[in-house]
Amino acid sequence: MNFDGSALAVAGVRTLEPYRPGKPVEALEREYGVVDAVKLASNENPLGAGAAAIAALRGLEQVLGRYPDGSGYVLKQALARHLDVAAGQLTLGNGSNDVLDLLARAYAGPGEEVVYSAHAFAVYAIVTRAVGATPVVVPAVAWGHDLDAMQRAVTARTRIVFVANPNNPTGTRLGASDLAAFVAALPEHVIVVVDEAYFEYVDAPDHPDCIQWIERHPNLVVTRTFSKIHGLAALRIGYGVAHESVADVLNRVRQPFNVGTAGLLAATAALADADHVQRSRAVNAAGLAQLQTGLQALGLDVIPSCANFIAFDTARDAAPIYEALLRRGVIVRPIANYGMPRHLRVTVGLPAENERFLAALGAVLVR
Ligand SMILES: *Cc1c(COP(=O)(O)O)cnc(C)c1O
After folding, report:
1. Ligand 1, residues at Cβ distance < 6 Å
2. Each residue of 208-223: pLDDT tens digit?
């Protein structure tokens, strides 16, 4: 029997590396026999979901037999008000990753090019290759997007440009004037996707809210998510904001029930829960400072971050350090698959979790 299902796959998929998620706490406890593990590996909100989102799930058992509202009417109305856009500009996704996938399926195909930066979010490569398009990966500057080089990489064959702002896993960000000039310089046959999964964490005066630019640049699409600051990663819900004609295209290729009832209910409540967002932002700002100071005290170089995670240079192969941290019950994220084999990425946790990580790392580094 030498049947090989991989050989039958379309060309882009044959050599595709699967997404490598952060190790779940239960997996670590099972595999390493540790108890009381801390997971700082998937940029999750350490406060979890807010009270309003949890309350919105009461009564869910009554409707489990029904399909969700495939149009997402209530959530779209709430988002439209919250973002000051038309409901027709919105596409809901099973996580914003789903929206990235819809964009690739609707706008790129074999022989066409998709441009993104080195060290950018792994899903751009997955969705690009899955549709048979050609990835054009532009080298980074100081771990961030090199917008000039990305602009030069655009050709007549380019269909999509992905920009993560802030970027994961590096935590780097682009200011309003640089990004605005970039978007304005791109030809209209290119769909420009600005992935704003961490938008709500950034508090820099020059940070752009790219949704404001869609009216001026109808080829611009902005994606956001309920997985990060809203603490709803388990429910898989995110969205895209676009020109109505683009949203219409995405809604054509979307699976009819791609977002479940739990996600719709919880997200609608989470959107109105400004307190939880505010508290999450405050916990994150303090934790980011705690991690940055602690890492620097260990003599490590960090990449300055404005998101809910920070990448740092271990100054050696990071894999054994990742392993040693696991044995101490601390899960962080190795990012060798992002072309960063000496770095690790740690998510901001609660103060005690951050401290536990810093203490474990300190112990691992002196050994
Ligand atoms: C976490 C993340 C997402 C969002 O993922 P979901 O599918 O919404 O959970 C999107 N883009 C980036 C850069 C991310 O880090």
Report:
1. 43, 95-97, 121, 164, 168, 195, 197, 225, 227-228, 233, 238
2. 999 999 999 999 999 9
